Amino acid sequence: MIISANRINSFNELYDVLKCDIYEGRIEERLPSIMQLCNLYGLSHCTVKKVLYRLKIQKYIEGHKGKFIQVNKLVVGNPLFQKNIVFYLHINTMGKLLSHSSISAVFSFSDILALGIYLYCNDHGVKIPEDISILSFDNLPFSELLSPSLSTFSEDSETIAKSTADLIKRITVGERNISTELIKAVFIERDSVIKI
Structural domains in the chain? Predict the structure, then answer.
């Protein structure tokens, strides 16, 4: 068992490290005990238990077996968990960017990644839109359910699909005079952008 032994300062950092180590197979069977993790990373017993609880809820670990915490072997190298890792790495990157800069707004290229920004802001006391405005693209159903609701762009998927099918048909029959078509997205103004 090889555990990333970088300096860890918070719940989120320990969570990210252990999650990545499990997924990438550096921890194949079991984690050290809670006390060993506390000593290794210099974090409180309570913080380590919270991290382990979160990992258990997300099925990265199965629970205690004696003094050790068993890893869920279905997670190691499983591509279904890869998107989850990318999502949390995005949150981590966003956190570093926000903590070292005077950024006042973020445009996310998808509502899913905007959700990651919301999670980071919630965990770190960053108020939306007072401290940072968030604008996104997709208009997925959950975007209006977030608090505050997410301002986003909505694309006309049906028009895009019909236009693409028509374009493919014209190309396959050898038509040479093909022009591009601009399909406008619609801005859905909600509450995640501050009014100026």
Answer: 11-71 (1.10.10.10), 83-154 (3.40.50.2300)
